[in-house]
Amino acid sequence: MKLLEVKIETSYDVEDALSYFAQEDLQALGIEARRRSDFEQAGWLHDSTVVEMDDIKDLPAEVEFIAYFDEERDRDEVVKAFEDKLKELAGYGLRTGEGTISTSYIADQDWNTVWQKYYHVINLSRHLAIVPEWESYKPAFPDQQIITMDPGLAFGTGNHQTTQLAMLGIERAMVKPLSVVDVGTGSGILAIAAHKLGAKSVLGTDISDESMTAAKENAGLNDFADLKLQKTSLLADVEGKFDLIVANILAEILLDLIPQLDSHLNEDGQVIFSGIDYLQLPKIEQALSENGFKIDMKMRAGRWIGLCISRKED
Ligand SMILES: C[S@@+](CC[C@H](N)C(=O)[O-])C[C@H]1O[C@@H](n2cnc3c(N)ncnc32)[C@H](O)[C@@H]1O
Predict the structure, then answer these.
(1) Which domain, by its residues, includes 7?
(2) Of 205, 211, 212, the residue nearest 239 (C-alpha)
(3) How many angstroms is it from 184 CA to the middle of ligand 1?
(4) How far apart are CA 215 and CA 87, in angstroms?
(5) pLDDT number for residue 156
(6) Last residue of a domain, one of 116, 147, 177
(7) Which of the four pLDDT bands, split at 50, 70 and 90, describes residue 154?
(8) Do 109 and 165 sit in the same domain of this protein?
(9) Which parts of the sequence bind S-adenosyl-L-methionine (predicted)?
(10) CATH code, domain carrying 82
(11) Cα 28 to ligand 1 centre (Å)
């Protein structure tokens, strides 16, 4: 099988909107982004090594956004949809960068090879390491938990800063065994992290079929047959209450989730949000406050915000 690869030279301002559009509206099989800032940060991390930006092939001015589709998809239609979206975003006053779109067909096999090249062990924290299925890793501490992942095509490899913020939030919250719901579980990575950190039960929900398949497979890789999965939107149709609600989704969707939190949260329950662009934080803060919640801790990585949330005291 081949994949249709669509590359867009664009700006940081619209990367999230394009990701959402590609996945939710165009049903892309997968997305990725090559960000100039990631290469720059790689340079800062190695203080004795100078990363020669000029030597990097096809370095984007800001972001090269890449979406993958089934080869059967009508290429012109997909390109037109992205062109229209870029125009719409520019109409909101957002910078869309060069906006050039190019396409090619790549072998599906190459996609997997690409993953294997870029996806390595993430030694995230004292208690968590994320290890691709094809790599081996000796824990830095005997009780460091290993999450084995096959990234597949659902979101959530552990590489994304939003996933990492959410995991750190779960680690902070899990001071005793909690019942957890992971809203928008994608690959299941946060649900598996909650289990490894000692949750007493975990439910993962998502609107996408790919997520249900990927989360089940990844749970299997982690001997976590008890992971419950439900294909549904947010929490409206989810039964029961939880000690911890986790959601790493774009701010626009979190705004719809906020009014559903109270009826699904146990007394003394906690909420972890991630996936919030810092520019969207005021809207989230206001909605949380209006719905009786307060922010106990803010975390930030790059332009992303993670929040630890609980009910306001009476
Ligand atoms: C940013 S990904 C997060 C995946 C994973 N939890 C992680 O942290 O890496 C967001 C996920 O939310 C799902 N999603 C989007 N809208 C949703 C909704 N209304 N209800 C449930 N899930 C949703 C998407 O399908 C996607 O898998």
Answers:
(1) 2-116
(2) 205
(3) 3
(4) 35
(5) 76
(6) 116
(7) low
(8) no
(9) 163, 184, 206, 248
(10) 3.30.70
(11) 14
